[in-house]
Design brief:
13% strand; Rossmann fold; 10 strands; alpha/beta; 319 residues; 12 helices; eight-stranded mixed beta sheet
């Protein structure tokens, strides 16, 4: 896979569980298990190849140049350490004194919406709700003043109202601090609200990439069609389209297009040869044989076509 992150943008990486999203992020952060290695290629950041830096260099990068928000806040927090200390620890590692680190931690707690930070500074994680714990994790991720914020399914374990507040918070902080954000999710509703560009990922590969508008209004890959068709909304009354089967085991990858066995539009060549990347515009690419000049004409599912027309109408009304 190959992609770039531009300064000040939010890039969403979308796909089902097992598509390789979290493994990609762990590769960037250098936190894969010791028996897992990047076999080839490079991960370039600020003149460094992150596949070749030492653990000491990575220690300086994590939390200080690149922040990470985990899916489950409980797994990211030390249950027997007060939350104030967990935030100040990151600040102290950046070379700040105890008094300065405390002041910054209180400032961050207020910035992420934790009420009465002076009082709650000395409380433990179990004394906070799930949404508040996720706010603490965001404060910890921001304590080192990172340039890049990686959000690995940060709202999956939260209810809808709390989820909306967390997304709004991440968006606001991104704007205020000029952060670049990588947002990992399987929820296309979240993507529509936060992403500038989208990478659709399947079986360890990016199968379609484009601006958020291109992915939602001009999808080109059958996998993107299937995901968009399976997304519930209030206006759709028809039965949602389910994607049969599960992603393949990449220890023994299938021949040809990895999505072929689940693709209702698959042709013989899909089972024999991996499709190349076809360019649809300067910002929109997709890897599917359906875009080959000799491929039969195939229309997107009716349920998706109706949604696209409805979204275009809503965008026109807002304009």
């Amino acid at each position: 896979m190959s992609f770039e992150l531009r300064r000040g943008e939010t890039l969403a990486i979308v796909g089902e569980s097992g598509s390789g999203k979290s493994v990609s992020i762990k590769s960037i952060m250098g936190i894969l298990p010791s028996n897992a290695v990047v076999e080839s290629g490079s991960i370039e950041y600020d003149g460094m190849d992150l596949t070749k830096v030492s653990e000491e260099q990575f220690h300086k990068l994590r939390g200080h140049r690149i922040g990470l928000i985990f899916q489950d806040p409980l797994s990211a927090l030390n249950p027997i350490m007060k939350i104030g200390k967990q935030i100040t620890e990151v600040r102290r590692l950046s070379g700040y004194g105890k008094k300065e680190a405390r002041a910054r931690a209180l400032e961050l707690m207020e910035a992420v919406g934790i009420p009465d930070p002076e009082k709650r500074f000395d409380q433990y994680p179990f004394q906070f709700s799930g949404g508040m714990r996720q706010r603490i994790v965001i404060a910890i991720a921001l304590a080192g003043d990172p340039e890049i914020l990686i959000c690995d399914e940060p709202t999956t374990a939260l209810d809808v109202t709390v989820q909306a507040r967390i997304l709004e918070l991440i968006n606001r902080i991104k704007q205020e601090r000029g952060l670049s954000v990588i947002f990992i999710t399987h929820d296309l509703g979240v993507v529509a609200n936060v992403a500038d560009r989208v990478n659709m990922m399947y079986a360890g590969k990016i199968v379609e990439t484009g601006t958020s508008e291109e992915i939602f209004l001009e999808p080109a890959h059958p996998y993107t069609w299937a995901l968009l068709s399976s997304m519930p909304d209030l206006q759709t009354h028809e039965r949602l389209v389910a994607i049969p089967g599960t992603p393949p085991n990449m220890i023994d990858p299938p021949k040809g297009d990895a999505f072929a066995a689940r693709n209702r539009y698959a042709m013989k060549i899909d089972f024999e040869k991996e499709p190349p990347i076809f360019k649809l515009s300067d910002t929109h690419d997709a890897a599917t044989w359906l875009l080959h000049p000799n491929a039969p004409a195939v229309e997107i599912p009716p349920i998706l076509r109706e949604r696209i027309e409805r979204m275009k109408g809503e965008m026109g009304n807002r304009g």
